[in-house]
Specification:
By secondary structure, this protein is α+β, with helices and mostly antiparallel strands. The chain folds into two domains: 9-48; 50-162, Nuclear Transport Factor 2, Chain: A (Roll). It has three helices and eight strands, in the order ααββββαββββ. It has helices at residues 11-48, 51-60, 111-120; strands at 68-72, 75-82, 85-91, 97-104, 126-134, 137-144, 147-152, 157-162. The protein has an eight-stranded antiparallel beta sheet. The longest helix has 38 residues, at 11-48. The protein is elongated, with a radius of gyration of 26 Å. The chain starts with 10 loop residues before the first helix and ends with a strand.
Amino acid sequence: MQLNFRYRISSNSINSLAVLNNTIIKNMKSLFTVIAMATSLCCMAQKETPAAVLAAFAKYFPGITAKSWDKEDGNYEANFKKDGKKMSATFDTKGEWLETETGIAVSELPKVVSDYILVNYKGQNIKEAAILKTPKGDMYGAEVKGKDLLFDVQGKFIREQAD
């Protein structure tokens, strides 16, 4: 028994495949371009970070690599993870340490902080929470309604500032 199969491929099918192939190639080129640009920007930010800042970061956080650097209000902020926690550290242009922020779960905020927000920011949710360490002392931070609320370690409200 012999089976004969014949396939006919029309010129429209070939043209459709060619168009599809070209579209896929163009999309892949675009994707690679975006990846390359993002990588370049990350590396450029690292290169633009002053040596004194990079040295200070290495001193304060030995063995840790910053995932990214941001320039914020003339200072430099390193974003990184340490012991599985999302963190950032801010340094001035001379490499002086200004602040370290460690993300925490909202449930880890002291009850007095949560209570203050419930009363003074009715109906608003806490988007993020953190422990901040500064040369002047430690504090808690809570992001509510696009603003950072700062509290001392006893949970007393200090101030509200733009995020």
